[in-house]
Fold this sequence. Notes:
Elements: H1 10-20, H2 25-34, H3 46-59, E1 63-67, H4 73-81, E2 87-92, H5 95-108, E3 114-118, H6 121-131, E4 138-143, H7 150-160, E5 161-170, H8 186-199, E6 204-209, E7 215-220
Parallel strand pairs: 1-2, 1-4, 2-3, 4-5
Antiparallel strand pairs: 5-7, 6-7
Amino acid sequence: xxxxxxxxxxxxxxxxxSVSLRExxxxxxxxxxxxxxxxxxxxxxxxxGQFMALLVKLIGAAKVLEVGVFTGYSSxxxxxxxxxxxxxxxxxxxxxxTAVARRYWEEAGVADKxxxxxxxxxxxxxxxxxxxxxxxxxxxxFIDADKVNYDGYYERALRLLKPCGLLLIDNVxxxxxxxxxSVDDSDTAAIRALNLKIHADPRVDISLLPVADGxxxxxxxxxxx
Length: 225
């Protein structure tokens, strides 16, 4: 028994995936191709992708927001879990990385579910809000992009989520650097600041889970908005 979350060494993580992970072949292929890229560490873990897909089904999500696509593992995991009418609005700055994503979306037959916007995500989110018909309409949002803008993404995603919408924020443990007082680069400082802000934010109910590199779940409280 343990009164705190257990740490996972390679052997235990291997066991975890062996008895839990049901990764579709298309996702395994995408993960293998991404592993050869210089920025492969930006991809989410397969068990996290499966967890996100389960959350989509649990809350009955049909309209999803994604900030940060990379090669598309998270968006593909979510798209495969969405109902037939489900849609993802996704933002990324890289034509090169998202070209890989588009190829796999097409192969998996979910490309028509994903509306990809290339450019600065802050600008794209502001454009969505300016439309006046998207605020308070998204079921789920996932943030996994440049860390210095996390607070900006958080505030905009909260506005776009419907009451009781679910916000997921990746990398909130940042490889343990958030707990290392000797580390104070801009990315780490931004994550620390957002973690503290969310902890005290009455607009959301929260849980920070030690999934992969740390995943915060923030449920938008309807009574506060």
